[in-house]
Amino acid sequence: MQLLVSVTDAREARAALAGGADVVDAKDPRRGALGAVAPGRLRAIYDAVGAHRPVSAALGDATQAAHIGRAAQTAAEAGVTYVKVGFRGIGSPARVRHLAAAAGAGAGVRLILVGYADWKRADGPRPAVVLEVAAAVGAIGVLLDTAFKGTGLFDLVSRDTVGRWVAAARGAGLLTALAGGLEGPDLQTAREAGADIVGVRGAACDGGRSGCVSIARVAALSALAHRAPRACSGARI
């Protein structure tokens, strides 16, 4: 399983890289679960990482097709490998599909659609709908995250439920990622659920989500993410 670390600037990007992150993710946590960084800062993050690791960029929650399309194209032109788009406040599956198609329309865009475990509170689509839309519009993968921070993913959804969602996504040929207040012990659970990527912010920082990325913390999380799975004791996913 690969480790994604969300960073706010070039300095944090270098720390994530030094700690062993597999994917460096550009995100502004002050602007929500998928807060986008400014274009200039995104380019600086990409330049700091270079060709050493893939760079992903959070684009926020889509509301208008033209806006999310431009944002995705700008990110692609900056050199990022993946763009992440959520749908907080968008309850209509048809509207979700329209917005997702707009985000993925640009050349060179590898689209990750984000479903929220707390989708009811976020007034968004069910994670199963996000999965179906991702397969329909040609997205490369899906991420199950939390829209509201403070409660972890596995506090909201059981491991078995997450495992079934991951299995359905993989069955559709999609890359699967999990995030949302995940700490060290949660990485084992994420791996056993079958995730390809686990994403962290707060656990990688001194001072929590609003602190600064720590090389030592990233290194410890990287070791956990890459550890061989332990044998399951009769549990089924």
Structural description of this entry:
The protein is an alpha/beta fold. The chain has one domain: TIM Barrel (Alpha-Beta Barrel). It contains ten helices and ten strands. It has helices at 10-19, 39-49, 65-77, 93-103, 119-122, 127-137, 153-156, 159-171, 184-192, 215-226; strands at 2-7, 23-26, 55-61, 82-86, 111-116, 141-145, 175-178, 197-200, 205-206, 212-213. It has an eight-stranded parallel barrel with strand order 1-2-3-4-5-6-7-8, surrounded by seven helices. It has a two-stranded antiparallel sheet with strand order 9-10. β3, α3 and β4 form a beta-alpha-beta unit. It is globular, with a radius of gyration of 16 Å.
Walk me through the topology.
Blueprint: E1 2-7, H1 10-19, E2 23-26, H2 39-49, E3 55-61, H3 65-77, E4 82-86, H4 93-103, E5 111-116, H5 119-122, H6 127-137, E6 141-145, H7 153-156, H8 159-171, E7 175-178, H9 184-192, E8 197-200, E9 205-206, E10 212-213, H10 215-226
Parallel strand pairs: 1-2, 1-8, 2-3, 3-4, 4-5, 5-6, 6-7, 7-8
Antiparallel strand pairs: 9-10
Helix pairs in contact: 1-2, 1-10, 3-4, 4-6, 9-10
